[in-house]
Protein 1
Amino acid sequence: MTALVELMDYDEVIEKYDPVLGLEVHVELHTNTKMFCGCANTFGGEPNTNTCPTCLGLPGALPVVNAKAIESAMRIGLALNCEIAEWCRFARKNYFYPDMPKNFQTSQYDEPIAFNGWLDVTLDDGEVIRVEIERAHMEEDTGKSLHVGGATGRIHGAEHSLLDYNRAGVPLIEIVTKMIPGTKERAPEVARAYVTALRDLLKALDVSDVRMDQGSLRCDANVSLSPKTTGALGTRTETKNVNSLRSVERAVRFEMTRQAAVLESGGEVTQETRHFDESSGSTSPGRKKETAEDYRYFPEPDLVPIAPSREWVEELRLTLPELPWERRARIQKDWNLTDEVLRDLVNANALDVIIATVEAGAKPDEARSWWVSYLAQQANSKGIEVTDLAITPTQVAKVIELVNAGTLTNKLAREVVNGVLEGEGSPEDVIEKRGLKVVSDDSALEKAVDEALAAHPDVAQKIRDGKVQAAGAIVGAVMKATKGQADAARVREIVLARCS
Amino acid sequence: MTNDLIHATAAELAAKIHSGEVSSVEVTQAHLDRIAETDGKVHAFLHVDTEGALAQARRVDEAVKAGEQVSPLAGVPLALKDVMTTEGVPTTVGSKILEGWIPPYDATVTRKLKEAGVVILGKTNMDEFAMGSSTENSAYGPTHNPWDLDRIPGGSGGGSSASLAAFQAPLAIGTDTGGSIRQPGAVTGTVGVKPTYGGVSRYGLVAFSSSLDQAGPCARTVLDAALLHEVIAGYDHMDSTSINAPVPPVVAAAREGLSGDLSGLRIGVVTQFTGEGYQQGVLRSFEAAVSQLKELGAEIADVSCPSFDYALPAYYLIAPSECSSNLARFDAMRYGLRVGDDGTRSTEEVMSLTREAGFGPEVKRRIMIGTYALSSGYYDAYYGSAQKVRTLITQDFAKAFENFDVLISPTTPTTAFKIGERADDPMAMYKADLCTIPANLAGTPAMSVPSGLSDEDGMPVGLQIMAPALQDHRMYRVAAAYEAARGAFGGPSL
């Protein structure tokens, strides 16, 4: 039930305004334990089972910092080309909310662990844009409120709320960009590309599950419009609940067209938090706050300052993996791929699995061929990403190896893959269960060839007369008789030998 | 027999229990009887855990009988301030907002006491959330000073100190944010020690002001306090501000002090803590103590710590600021009191009604002061400036300790005042902590040891001894030597 909102035509927006972006990404780290206590950090689970006095905020309980979380924060900072603070602290951000056990969030405020960095982002057409990073800081997640009753599932209009503190105290890193001006009509695409690049980077660092659908990567998109006539900065809105890469793009685009319509009608953009609705693709205002929020930040007295030694920082720098874009550049060179082919692989989200298949022993061409054709079709028909198929790169490499060894024909190989996708086990299991081995026993093949020649005496005569191309019909008959489990090349050799 | 048991020191009781001369059950029962007999007048306890105490006493007796090696204070009863969480035993912090809350976990101090075989008799009364200097701010009614039931026993730990003075327990635990161990010790004629900040774990200590709160031992003798100090002190990985260093050798220092020789020890008298506002009887008692320390061989001279004049205002910005945040968690959502949740009200309304009903006036006053001091636009002027004063105070201490081994002053400007006398004058109440606050702001150890009775009103007076961080043993040595020289000064009759 969203009120009808006036929108301006997108081309007209771009004609009259310059959009300015700012992106805040929250990443849940997948450390074993929470930020300030020893509770398991796992997604899901029975409500309120992964809790203790500390993450429930019981009287008297105290926090102790998770060293692994600090390490992850520093690695993220380093991968984003940030400076790492020589000395920093946590602060308390004070506000009341039922899913926040202490009614303050322990977060970094004016002393973030990492700051002043950048991330190069490649757009769909290959253009590279440098996004400047303001800061990356550590904080703790809140619990979850489930609002029961009411139409929207939001607190407004709900009959009652249930609270689950399993997520309370899960380590979060908040990564904030500086203002991103000058993206013009590509602002929505830049927003998506930035979050995509950041997701890939965090995945390579192995610090988070980066699942937007599960909330382990959450994006708030800040958008404002600057009129081209004056160049003055506009009032920004902050859109939350943007739960997929596509939504990032849609939310930015929607806000641009909405804000432009507001400005065009002589109104003013309200500085506010807005909520993105996946189904309608629109944003709506968050709950109105009666008073201005004053978080009364002050240094957290229950924790000691963090002063990472320069030696530690340099040690962590050495643990940085090959970054996704470096890897792409290397692969493109090694495999001699055109920009276009590489981009297709990246866009199909297939590069990583192809690389992994090659690492498992396949040749690049063979691996690429499987993933972008047959496996891509299978994923398409299921409506999922290739990376979500129930087959591993190692299993694909195994199938390729069996084809090259002559154990499987291409046709059989596809059947083996189908079996794996349907959950029948490893390629070897499927071959065993379905009896899919190539018939390579010459005596059996000779018998089948003799039968076929006897059944088609006219064809046999043509071959004997030197019309070698007629052998195809006999080969076909043999393949049919062996249900495709014969090596066609070998069958042909036998046919020709019998008729010579 | 009972009379002997309740008047004995913890060290004497431990020796008797461990030798099998008396059982811990007998000792515990004697103290439980004393509580039953006197607490109607004193009101030191909010909760007496008869069963838990006797069960622990039986365990110790069995261990002694079995010839097992037991801890130095095993079997000795203790009164625990109601600010420490106790698994399965109510913990109210003197507040209605936690009425009926049963903690699911033990504070580290509680755990250490249990592991050492100490018998926890129950939980003692205190100013609500440890905010106060008289125990009048308890939501459960005031505690009375055993020396004169019309007077306050100090605060916030008035229940713990009164229980010692009333011979209800030979040992007690207090917590000291601005003087809440030392000032009650002074006005009840008992020993109270605030260890170095970080010396005793704060895990399970319901926070008032995190950067100032410190738990410590209370007893009737210096040696008893030292024995208890060593039980509760030490590094705790559950408290990030806990110091990872060996516990200062306070028991050895107390025993050494009992020899009575302080030759060569340099003692500084803080000149800021005298003059106007100080009761004459307190000053005379202090002068007498200075003379005695000189006779013990100490070299005594004045030392000026000018920034101490700003300690009180700085404290009343830092402590309320931290408390405004620490007490935010009491919102009726997860535990404790819930008011007005009748299905018609919003979460915010239930939170407000609960906090309105659950917190007393002094707690509300401090939450409001702290909220204001931290708010945007005022932070630098208030909280920021107070932190600068804190640095200056730390520097004044450091400078003074270049020339002196310990510093001394009266613990409080006056003896115990009458119940109700300062109830409507917060500033007068706050001044009770004038001399004790600097050590909290600097994180340095300090203690109060009785210096006899004031010649004006016959009420106890305390001598404060302050030492550098982690040098807790220095003040124990001085206190034990002084205590031996001072001799007995009588006790209250109840």
Protein 2
Amino acid sequence: MAALLELHDVSLSFRGVTAIDALSFSVEQGSICALIGPNGAGKSSLLNVINGVYRADSGDIVFDGVRFEAIRPGKAARLGIGRTFQHNALFRRLSVRENVLAGLSRLGQASFIETIFRVGRDAAERRTFAARADRVIAFLGLEAHRDRIVSTLPYGVQKRVDLARALVSEPKLLLLDEPMAGMNQDEKAEMSRIISEVNRTFGTTIVLIEHDVGIVLGLARHIVVLDYGRKVADGAPDQVRDDPEVIAAYLGTVH
Amino acid sequence: MAFFLETLIAGLFAGLMYGLVAIGFVLIYKASGVFNFAQGAMVFLAALVFVSLVERGIPFWGAFALTALLMAIVAVAVEALVLRPLRNRDPLTLFMATLGLSFVIDGTAQFFLGTDVHMLDLGIDDIAQDYGGILVSRFDIVASLIVIALVAVLAAVFSKTRMGISLRAVADDTLAAQSIGIRLPVIWRIVWSVAGFVALVAGLLWGARQGVQFSLSLVTLKALPVLIIGGFSSIPGAIVGGLIVGASEALADIYLGPIVNGSVSTWFAYILAVAFLLIRPAGLFGDREIERV
Amino acid sequence: MASIQDSAPDAAHVAPAVSTPALMRLALVATGLVVAFGVVPAYATDYWLSSIIIPTIVMGLAGISLNLLQGYAGLVSLGSAAFMSVGVFSAYNLILRAPDLPLPGVFVLAGLIAAAVGVVFGLPALRIKGFYLAASTLGAQFFFQWLFTNYPWFSNNSQSLTISAPRLEFLGYDLQSPHGRYLLVVSVTALLIGLAFLVVRSRLGREWMAIRDMETAASVLGIRVARRKLEAYAVSSFFLGITGVLWGFAYLGTADAHTYNLDKSFQILFIVLIGGTATIFGNFLGAAFIVLTPIVLDHLVLASNVAYLSDQGAITNLQRVIFGAIIIFILIKEPDGLSAWIRRGVEAIRGRLAS
């Protein structure tokens, strides 16, 4: 299969401190790719570069045949890059349903006037958006929480809402920043099942960051190991697990 | 040319006053994250109390000490009655609370001490002296020296003393500072007292020039553009920002005013500040923050 | 590739044809309209209409205007009164220079002019965030006060720089009396409340709140943040422009630049915070507080009969102190504003009905 996402020599630094160092790799259409590495390895920064929250110092990215050096987050969203966040980034005073509806924003076509007076394209959008939101809420088992304000929900549920919000517009690429952080083993297994189901059902290509190596080896088809912003290893789970440099740099020292 | 320079110097003097008020903001902003709208009311309160004491026959330094003491009492009261109950609330709420506080402070001051305009004589002659063809008031020069001395002392205190280091720790990371045993209420009380003292100095200098009256408290409105230009967290920035605002405002008034039909000093500083924001969003001396997601 | 539409089981969210909350809402709206257009005009005296009810409603509307910007979109403004003044001076000149324009047209155009001005002063919001934004709106506050003071053209070269309300009439009805002015105010307000609800319950309102709660996430989802922010300034200023016309023409009967000064902007800010952010009806509670507090304090002071307080200056300052103290008190005790009272009241009634 062809690559959906390719990074070529991407570098990023903050006030002179290198976060990502001439990094290149590619992610195949329809695969699940995991980024692993110790804290500060540049994993979150990398996701931020891919969907335009940060601007790379050099290098370029090809997504779905479109080549760019820097992109605005909104443009990335409209190209079809979805994203969840490591730290809670939900719209905390909105309900679950409103959060999920907001996830459809990239598809909204209705103009300002149409939106306010509920005429023209807005009327149709209201119906289809509501249906899509309800289906994703059902898909992720969030019906019971549908009208709750998200800040009142338990952490694990909020993580699922974040996923629902990113998934509802059916992006081609989904970037998941530690979707299982802070969860217990059962919750992790459940989230892992959901992620592979999303991948299987919708064919969504997924790039995720996760620290639990056991989970990653079971879930991902492709693993990229980072350390201090450099790529240490890149390949299938078996390959990576046996790589001596990975064992030295990462697997051997953690857990 | 002489006229230009005189205008510029008058503007710089006004700018020094703006800067002095802005320093009060910076101190409080660094320690408690509050944009303290009541700083202007504190300037007015200090000046009015001082002049009333002097008028009742209390000698200069006695009145000065008593007023400084009062400002410390105000600081302790503000910490207990406003800041502590509003801990961890959003900046806009805190700002509104200081707006309410400014009503309480200037209302109380005028309720007890009246609304008359008081003349304040600090014993520094306000006479123009000729420096190579340019007329500069001696008062302005002495006042500028006082401000510079005050800023130097503050800078030394905040970079050298334990208290200053604690303050910087609080400004950097409030939680971490608390976890190493820095007590926030104490820091707040001290910083608001120092801000009160700065307000006293500003009130005396500005009051001697303008007369002690309610309009002194409006100087607070000029602090926002000053801080935007200088950055919210830098004492030198506040002074430089003040000088830039004061000078450009005075020059704009003289050279732009006649073209557009009247004094532009009420709004010019804001337009300048917005222009600065668009070019340098963090101000001259501030750091740009990296957003972490 | 499968799609979400056909993959997931149909969600069972079929609401009954008319739900109880919807019925209750309908009943509330009907009651509100009956009170506003029937009961109040029938029983209120001219004094109550002119001095309490009209200013409360208009200031409540001002609160709604700012709440759209601040409570829903999370943007700061310290210059609300400036946009009100743009509205009233626009309306005055429209009536003066286009006498055939009917009153509703005047209102809408005045609102649109204020909206355009709002967009201009909102432009810095595209690059700066948070409290820094106060600078540009504070600039608007002082700029328009200066403009309407220094250019007499706006007040038709009147000596005092004051504009007086034109004869208010609509479809042949004279709206000059207190009752007429009340009806004008309450009709415009009812329409604008309806519009406000349409806006905040639309995708626009939802995206405003998303930007308010977490701007980075909003932009990552493809919300057009810059455009939405400018639209927030436009909508808010549209409301403020119309509110300004009502304040000048229907309440005071006259207006000048000073009518819409910084104090007024701060009052509107207080209304929003006291009433509650991201509410519509709470603003009227905030407005009632702002309008009634000075009146009540006045009566209390007169009744107390303390000799020292016979001095008007002392009374004004005492009011200032009490007002400031009440504001701090409310901020401490009611973080969600007085609209929390309504919510609690409704819940209490509901609880009683249920039991």
Protein 3
Amino acid sequence: MIDPSIIGRSLSPVTAHVEPGRLRYFRETLGETNPVYVDAGAAQASGYAATPVPPTYLFCLEMMDAEQAFEFITVIGVDIGRLLHGEQRFTYRAPVVVGDTLLFEPRIVSAADKKGGAMTLVGIETKVTNQNGTHVADCARTVVVLNPKTA
Amino acid sequence: MSEAVKTQPTIGDRLVHKAFPPISRHTLALYCGASGDHNPIHVDLDFAKAAGYPDVFTHGMLVMAYLGQALTDAVPPPRLRSFSTRFVAITQLGARLTCEGHVSEFVEHDGEPCAKLALTTKDENGDLKLSGEALIAL
């Protein structure tokens, strides 16, 4: 269903900025009140240099600052209405805080048909480094493509 | 900071438990902007119907963000080493989600003693939406 030659292909790198206003909007949308995420003093008392980002916010930063948020859709050649998110993983290696500038380097790592071709699972892994070159995190997602029925 | 993780937890301990308000169209619209995920399927009813769905539905990553919030309410964020989920089923509008996490295993990770938490997010009917895992340093 999907061209297997896309496996191993790198997508455009994304440089993203951890901006306090956008982060506040995210927190307020989710009703986040944990002092570590809301109060810079509490964050510093927990050992952070500044307010850290909540556990899933890396995914948002990559989309917000991408020139094409859905570049992978163009690469795999499907309609956005046929996608579902299958799995998501974050591995945390170092803190990410307000003021950081992050480099996201996404790569397509797998593509496999399932259920007799009814769906295709596409794996994308993203290495995240900060402005000091520190490898701060890895993100991995599995996207489910619902394939049209072939009559 | 949770008292539960200051002392050695035991297998089966429920460290994470949090309930969230019903998911509204307004929440989905706000999350669309806040997350940068502008996929119209979550906010545009006409688009969702044309794609074969009865209505718009919740971003999987919004549900994972709630699960993450439940997790970091219970576990000091600097101790979080990894966090993963499988999106088991679509979360419908109006869903009232409850997130839970139980200690499932003790492991060593990069020379550091850690606990694995088995995580779930269920709706008000008890239907499983997300199944996940977190690794936390002890």
Protein 4
Amino acid sequence: MERFLTKDFLSGLMFVAFGLGALYVGQHLAVGTPVRMGPGYVPRMLSLILLALGVVICIVAVVSGSEPVERPKWKPITLVTLGIVCFALLFERAGLIPALIVLILISSLAGEEFKLTEVIGNIVVLSILCTVVFKMGLGMNISVVQGIW
Amino acid sequence: MDLLGNLGLGITVAFTFQNLTYALLGCMVGTLIGVLPGIGPVATIAMLLPITFHLPPTASLIMLAGIYYGAQYGGSTTSILVNLPGEASSVVTCLDGYQMARKGRAGAALSISAVGSFFAGTVGTIIIVIFAEPLTRMAQKFGPADYCSLMALGLVAAVVLASGSITKAIAMVFLGLLFGLVGTDVNTGAQRFTFDVPELSDGIDFAPIAMGLFGIAEIVVNLEKHLERGGAIKVGSLWPTREEIRRATPAILRGTILGSLLGVLPGGGPTLGAFSAYTLEKKLSKTPGEFGKGAVEGVAAPEAANNAAAQTSFIPMLTLGIPSNAVMALMVGAMIIQGIQPGPEVMTKKPDLFWGMIVSMWIGNAMLVIINLPMIGMWVKLLTVPYRYLAPAILLFCCIGAYSLQNSTFHVMQVAAFGVLGYIFVRLGCEGAPFLLGLVLGPQMEEYFRRAMLLSRGDAMVFLERPISLGLLITTALLLILMALPSIKKAREEAFQEEG
């Protein structure tokens, strides 16, 4: 198992996956002829090359070994992504301030230290700053709190 | 057109109040973000792309160029003061710059690096002015097949200079090319890889990809690392001693020359320039033992070289439309969003934009010296802001920026998705730069490839029959073969070892 949990082997797998995925999704695109290429010609060519490169990378990684992949820390990437997704969902439905509060709260949890007072301070400062800059300064067509302003 | 006439046109464009303001704004914002630890020029430009979209093309490019230089200056400042390089090209500045700071010569190191950078930037700008026209004229003779081969060369050269496995970097280029194809096929109108999402029919927007891959991924990696900080450092007198000036002057000159040369190479750029300049100084020095302990040459030469290279790396982008590194790929992306197809036509069709931008590069460099030295105290204060405040704030600005592109939360979602992808790339040791180059060049390359094949009636030999194309392809092949040679492979690995 150790042999396969290397950076090179896994990236090879990733390229294979992208290659296969692109072939599958693009299967209905007409390939055409070299003179009159259809929309699928270049995508298919690129997918096949990517697939081949992925296979080569995998084989080389297994035969000659490579750096083991570090254990990922799930917390930062999960929380940051979650924060952005929540922001996207809330921004138009609830407005700038609610989306901002949720994003800052969640992404502050991603770091090592979390002090509620500091986070609240950060939220207050950023709320004022964003309202002044984006709503009043740049006149962006956004609502600060949906239904109120 | 004569040189002076061109420059005159550039000056009239660059010295308008509006463009001067945007140049200044770009420099300020660039420095601001560049000073923040862990965020280099690529991430800075990526995250700030949205704010330039609503400006006229010339102003937006002037601002982006300002951000680029600003971020570089900011990076040097953090290297010297707290031993944190903001970007790869300032890594070498840390070696001696931070040592100078510990000896109480931080002020001198900062001013030498600022003056050296300004000098190098000026020389770099002059080189662009001289070479832009001949190169553009040459590029106008290129047919579709030649262009296709030129892009292949540019992509391969960029790969060679990426650290880590070359095969992986090449695969990343192809992945980027593939992502570049998403959207409506220009020739047939067929939807490709759009999954029936209407927002994707114009292709994946460039800005969210760049923001996610470079901005978000970088923030996440920094959050994991728990950034260490040195204590507050006293800047001291900004004036270098006479001895320091005597030693720094020739180093700046050598660094400028070396950096200018290396910057033009496809795949070259500030990092390569800075490293080579440092090595050169160490070899030429009568007292190589001083390097790493606060040798003033070790600050002057790499700082001059990275700025010179930063300037001259604009040459292939402006004249041929081929980005030589990730920053230039972002610039190409920004131009395309503004409706300008980078390439030889830019200079002939939009001379005001072209020359205005070049002149404003010089203005930007001058502004940075003025902004940076007297305001150094303010930047130092910024360094003491903890990352736990900064990271959420940067994320927030990214999200609002992404939304503002087209007033759509779909773009914010894209930022999140590409953030995850970027994080996977980092964890698997896959470089983002080749991906970005492939992404930017993908659509054009397909276009040229299809046109070339159509003109040759489907005969792929066209790429070998045209002399320009053949020459470019031979160079590409040579590069690849060279990289496969064991001795060069080893030297390359060692070079990147030092960097990491």
